[in-house]
Amino acid sequence: MTPPIPLQLDPKHRAQLAPLGALLTQWNKAHNLVSRKLSEDQLLDLLWEATAFERFLPLGANVADLGSGAGIPALPLAVIRPDLKIEAVEPRQKRCTWIRFAQQKLDCPLTVTQARWQPDWDHFDFVISRAVFPPAEFCDAVGALAPRSLQMTGESVTSHGRARYRIARGDVDAGLILAGEQTELLFPERVS
Question: Positive or negative CA dihedral for 106, 116, 33, 177?
Answer without folding.
Answer: negative
